[in-house]
Amino acid sequence: MSVHDIKSRKFFRTAMLVLSIALAGCVSSGGLHTTGTMTDSASLKNERSLAQVPLSPTAWPAQDWWVGFGDSQLNTLIAEALKNNPTLADAEARARQAQAVADSLNAARDPQADLSASAVGARLSSKDPVYPEYALGSFAWAKSVTAGFSWDLDLWGGKRDAWEAALGRSRAVQIDAHAARIQLSVNVARAYVRLGYAFAQRDVADAEQQRASKSLALTRRLIEGGLGTTQQAYLADSQVASAEQQKEQADRAIDAARSSLSVLLGQGPDRGLAITRPHLLDQGMVALPDQLSVGLLGRRADLVAARWQVEAAAKDIKATKTEFLPNISLSAMAGVVAVGDSTNVFQLPARTFSIGPALSLPIFDGGRLRAKLATTDSVYDQSVARYNTLLVAALNNVSDQVSALKSVHTQIDLEKRAQQDAQKSWEQAMTAYKGGVSGPLVPLISRQQLLLTDQRTAALESQQADISIQLIEALGGGYGVGDSVDLDQAAEAGQVSR
Known about the structure:
By secondary structure, the protein is of the alpha+beta class. Strands 1, 2, 3, 4 and 5 form a 5-stranded antiparallel sheet that branches. The protein has helices at about 5-25, 70-85, 85-105, 135, 160-225, 230-265, 270-275, 290-300, 300-320, 370-435, 440-475, 485-495, and strands at about 110-125, 140-150, 325-340, 350-355, 360.
């Protein structure tokens, strides 16, 4: 055995010993783990709460759900808002930014190559032994043309995991941008309902003002004839003032609703002045989708985005764990370099090259990597907790809106019965007055009761429309599986490895 072979073996044994000692003392991820568990939607029972609600597989809201209200002006307003509202531009810009981050991380996974060329002139020192003045003169040019190559082999897939985490966050932000559009359409519709109620309030206030004015005039004539008292006149006048206040309040509510719509449309206040009285169709009671708890997972944009955030956090954990492992990277350079004015850089003697494989392994880092992994674990647990919170809130929100809709529907039926009775009472009072059986104030008093039922009915109908819109929002507002990349499909396509 040659001396060279003996030395090589000694070197190999020494290197293996050093590597073994290093591996034994390496930083470890042991003992760190997540605690969050995603809630199974099937475990959240809702059968008893929704036992009396009709179910249908086609009951999910359509993407253009507002068309069902049968008001062409509402259709126009929502289309205008989706086109002009500046908050949507902000959401879409954030989505593009998140996608750019994912793209940059994906690009870092590939081999990198670059080409450079330079020519640097310098006055040379007469005392420089490397470039003597007698050979190159006092001034010379250094010329080079080089090509570089580098590649992090990503042995454990850490860079891929980091890219997939960024991709998941990008998907979540994109879905948030879609959710912003749904939220905007809901806000426009609800503001439109408030505008309709304000107009109904003004109608009642106008009718009450006319009634109170007639009552005051009749009371004054009775006082002049000695058949009334000043106390009755004060009471009648207070009713006139109250009716005028209610009318002013309704006018202000109309202005406020129009102003809100102008903001949502991304326009100035004059745009709101052109919005006329709404004419919404009664939605009545609605059916709910069957398999609600499962279906919401793909129909609620916030839930889908939250799931992507959980997936991204899981990928971050995998990426962080690979930093505890050894990694290999390659770098190389080749080119030509020459010094001297008369030297041709493109010649065989000017060639140069280098190659640099590198092995990196964390041994002692003061706990930095463990702290980083603990952070990513906590982010995952937070993401899971947020998802679970959203899921529970979403199911309960649907149930609560259904309960509210059923209640207000019953209240409307009862109030309409009261309205019909008040109408008959007023009609009979008018008949008695015309027949000389009662005085002129009796039908005016009955008319006041009728107007009160009109006011309550308008409030309930407005509340019913508003709850219907909130239920549509709770059911996803028209967001569906076709609007986003499903997590399982994305995994199968290789976009997200589970």
